[in-house]
């Protein structure tokens, strides 16, 4: 693409049309630009359009956005075959133009070009763009001389973006070399512009400078602070250590001085707070990583931060500053300089002036509770509130308690009692004091290692529960003071293991009543409380609450749970649905309850099919259906037909409308229903079987595990139908397709193993030659440990089902003597890698049968193979898994996953039951020595010599020990 008047006109019109509110010209323009973007020099031409002063600002901005996105997808090596990479010559020209263009552009365009420059820098800087940083330094110094802060901030913003990698990437030699290059070139200019800007700010403040003039200066200081953070993140650079006085002197000034002209205008206070927050983050970094070098400044910063926090209002706009400041004090509290908190009255003062004000509920907390319950719960219950004032204030207390535990616990306990006394004096006016007390106790609780149990030393849990929590839970007004109800339910949930079973059972009916609370948070917490109670285990791993405990309240509980899903905005409440799943798993499901539940679940399923929004809710929905099918139908088989009547329309709708998110779930539910049926399967199922055997059904990789699960169910339930109408040929075609790809080869073996397990040898005999040819071809082209282990398991299953003679003969029919090649190169060296109880037993027994029954191993020529095979069997049976298996995950074939757009999610409650093909053999070790004993009795004296020549000494000793244990000598 050439830069000329026609190109300028064409692109200008296209970018103008992309801004059109009418869809037709907008789509046409987007299509034209997409097509043009594959032409050589497209990016360079768009950049020149951005630079053209005669073009309307709106068009230039749209072009700058397009240019940034063009670089984002094409600057680095392109993976998408439909996109053309930018040529090196064009890249060089873009690099030569972009810095100067960015600096002379308007603010809107400048921000887009700065991002584009960062895209280039992320990939090319510094090695492939050594001219960038020197150019930025020169232009920064030029802009500094003329006090052009639009340009200065543009440069600093760009530098900030490209230096961010030093915060997040792993420390490597390459990273440290890049960091050294940046420090050598930019550390001094950074300090120079930081100090110069600081001097201008001081001058402006003393002469009554306006907010307009101060704003760009503070933005410059904010960017300098963020660059400081990046350059100091890995280690303390020598330059910064040498100039620590200058940096820290200015940092302290921003924490201690006020700037009324700026702070009282518009968003000026927010900008000053951003600088202060960045300073707090910088000094926290020095406390964490450079404590020794920083200690001389610590006292003055601790006092400055403490004083600052006392003046920071509760306004949400000041949250970031408050959080960063408290984080700094928390870092100090856990350091060797914690003695700053040892002074008399310090800890109570921190509690009074910092902790309690920041833990108390604010208006925005109440608003979030009412208007966005999902976000409130995410912060409050799921622990994502780590950067909120409430949580960070409690983290400060925990930090101080690291060294002053008794003082903190005593002081907090007194505060809790004071808050509760205030509430008792006037419950209506002071309900927030009670909320604050509950939050303190819950937040300062500690989780015991290795379990879900929590403890607290602030209060006696049982007495606090009885006096503070119980009245809220037993309140008959489910809608009164909802935040207190939520806090009480959260406390009950957290300390559920401490509450005795009789007390908890008395309260469950109250919790069930809260499922009807109008507050989304309250009925969500009630559902979560019930769900977590059902998970409580007593000693020995026994569930504390059984079906007998649930039965008396089951009808009301189930009814309230489904009604909770009718509240506005709770139609897809994941906590309620998870509780339904848990209740169905724990309760005895009567026919009446089962019908009620399947009606309710299918109604919800049909509703979400049209617009799947919440994947977590949807997962628990399908788990609930699977759990209901499993528990109800296994107990009363007559329910299957009514369940099918309800579920089939929903499943058919998912299949017909290609609801991508739900297809794997639908296939797993179908597999569950097929397994519950008694042969012969109905016509409805056989129609699905026909659909399942179509190659089109297997095109989406994300559906494969679920389709295999369904196919296995059909193969088990309809083996006779499998041999009719060419179905077995189609099944083996699916096996071949799956086994040839390393991303699905294990799924191919699941299909093949199920065929071998469920058909007589006569049914599969005509296809065995083709099966071996497919497997040997894959083994030759691309072998992985996963494939070899799957092959060993398949060969073992073949032996136990159809005999070692058939195995050896059919393999050798494909290629003469290939059996011994496979045995020597793959079976013997890899048998030790088998894991899983059933798999280990299967392969050990099959390998034993092979050495005791196969003529190829029993004659004189096979003695060495016989001995080495026995050595592997003994290794498998006598050594722990950790000694046998090296934990080396294989690198997946990236090519196999191209086009993979969705993730398969297994339904736990619709899982396939593991079948043991060797139920009659209880102990593979006993089977081995008994088989060897019988074999050696036929040829006395032969096998001890083979054993001594081929088994490792440790395995010889292990084998002798097994013989003694089972009293089966090898003679």
From TrEMBL:
<dbReference type="InterPro" id="IPR011989">
    <property type="entry name" value="ARM-like"/>
</dbReference>
<comment type="similarity">
    <text>Belongs to the XPO2/CSE1 family.</text>
</comment>
<dbReference type="InterPro" id="IPR005043">
    <property type="entry name" value="XPO2_C"/>
</dbReference>
<dbReference type="GO" id="GO:0006606">
    <property type="term" value="P:protein import into nucleus"/>
</dbReference>
<keyword id="KW-0963">Cytoplasm</keyword>
<dbReference type="GO" id="GO:0006611">
    <property type="term" value="P:protein export from nucleus"/>
</dbReference>
<dbReference type="GO" id="GO:0005829">
    <property type="term" value="C:cytosol"/>
</dbReference>
<dbReference type="InterPro" id="IPR013713">
    <property type="entry name" value="XPO2_central"/>
</dbReference>
<keyword id="KW-0539">Nucleus</keyword>
<dbReference type="GO" id="GO:0005635">
    <property type="term" value="C:nuclear envelope"/>
</dbReference>
<keyword id="KW-0813">Transport</keyword>
<feature type="domain" description="Importin N-terminal">
    <location>
        <begin position="29"/>
        <end position="104"/>
    </location>
</feature>
<keyword id="KW-0653">Protein transport</keyword>
<dbReference type="InterPro" id="IPR016024">
    <property type="entry name" value="ARM-type_fold"/>
</dbReference>
<dbReference type="GO" id="GO:0005049">
    <property type="term" value="F:nuclear export signal receptor activity"/>
</dbReference>
<protein>
    <submittedName>
        <fullName>Exportin-2 -like protein</fullName>
    </submittedName>
</protein>
<dbReference type="Pfam" id="PF03378">
    <property type="entry name" value="CAS_CSE1"/>
</dbReference>
<dbReference type="InterPro" id="IPR001494">
    <property type="entry name" value="Importin-beta_N"/>
</dbReference>
<dbReference type="GO" id="GO:0031267">
    <property type="term" value="F:small GTPase binding"/>
</dbReference>
<dbReference type="Pfam" id="PF03810">
    <property type="entry name" value="IBN_N"/>
</dbReference>
<dbReference type="Pfam" id="PF08506">
    <property type="entry name" value="Cse1"/>
</dbReference>
